[in-house]
Amino acid sequence: MLIFDNPDTMRQWSRSQSTAGKKIGFVPTMGALHRGHAELIRVAAEECDTVVVSIFVNPTQFNVAEDFDKYPRTLDSDLTVATDAGATAFYVPDASRMYPEGFETYVVPGHTADPMEGAGRPGHFRGVTTIVTKLFNTVEPHVAYFGEKDFQQLAVITKMTKDLDIGVRIRPVPTVREHDGLALSSRNVRLTPEHRSQAPIIHQALSAAAEQLLAGRSVGDALNVARNLMDSIAACRVEYIDAVDSLTLDPADVNHESGTIVVATAAWFGDVRLIDNVRVDMTGA
Ligand code: AMP
Fold first, then answer.
1. Do residues 32 and 72 make contact, with C-beta atoms less than 8 angstroms apart?
2. 148 contacts 279 by C-beta, under 8 angstroms
3. Which of 149, 272, 276 to mutate to test the pocket of ligand 1 (most atoms within 8 A of CB)?
4. Mind listing the pLDDT tens digit for each residue in 223-265?
5. What angle separates helix 35-47 from helix 75-85, to the nearest 10 degrees?
6. How far apart are CA 271 and CA 99, in angstroms?
7. What's the gap in Å between 147 CA and the centre of ligand 1?
8. Would you tell me which of 67, 126, 151, 210 could form a disulfide with 280, CB atoms 3.0–4.6 Å apart?
9. What's the CA gap between 35 and 8, in Å, rounded?
10. pTM
């Protein structure tokens, strides 16, 4: 198993792969790998000659220190899950190497990072864009794989690579779900059994909103239907539920020029914050 913890040796290895004509796929993760991550790696392995998986719990994207401390760390099983899915090499740097004393340069995202996750987690996307840039500069992949589960993250990173002329193709991968619709997340293991049984309401509510939109109801009505469903579960606290244009992230009732609306939500069960979204293709509606 090839594991690099140093940016210089990681880059050297990647360059040797590129020089040998290999197409490098890259899957950045924070570890605690599950079938959602495995799907990203599997798709990368199908499309590329070599697949680098990074595992790094990035402190600058957590705005609550406690959430960072509580984040599950399961390196041994992560290496197995990723290898089984087709990973060729791992980049596992430590925080002191990524953010040494005197670190002061950040990549600051724009408008795309403002609503939803950006509103509720100030500074979160600045941490994401900064770490992803650092990882891209080290791994030098041809293609990077990101889950649609983190839809706004995907939008922010796609915009960043375009705006900053970063020569990495961003490849979205659809959300992997449990049988009852709950999106796989590293945070699901922290749900109590009762909350776990209630959490599928999130996907049910999003799907109901999508149906309403496709049936021609207004964005406001569709969001109300979804919110009422989530509010029917006392334990479910909705932080936001929004419908936005899939590319600009402008409110969908103002502009959905891309033809696709994304209905996205963040909701709490106890101290566990879950996010999810559905894409609604309005071109035929
Ligand atoms: P994370 O380790 O949570 O930062 O996630 C690493 C990557 O895995 C991100 O691109 C996520 O969007 C993606 N991911 C997480 N959960 C899922 C899922 N259920 N389905 C598809 N991709 C996912």
1. yes
2. yes
3. 149
4. 999 999 999 999 999 999 999 999 999 999 766 667 899 999 9
5. 40
6. 28
7. 5
8. 210
9. 30
10. 0.97
The three-class DSSP label of residue 223 is helix
**For the chain, percent helix, then strand, then coil, each to nearest 5?**
45, 20, 35
| CA-wise closest residue to 116 among 252, 257, 16 | 252
Q: How many CB atoms lie within 10 A of CB 68?
A: 16
Hey, what are 143's tokens? 């293609």
The model's pLDDT over 129-150, given as tens digits with 9 standing for 90+, comes to 999 999 999 999 999 999 999 9
Give residue 34's Cα distance to chain centre: 13
The alpha carbon of 38 and the centre of ligand 1 are apart by a number of angstroms equal to: 9
* One-letter amino acid of 93: P
- Considering only CA atoms, which of 177, 278, 174, 185 is closest in space to residue 226? 278
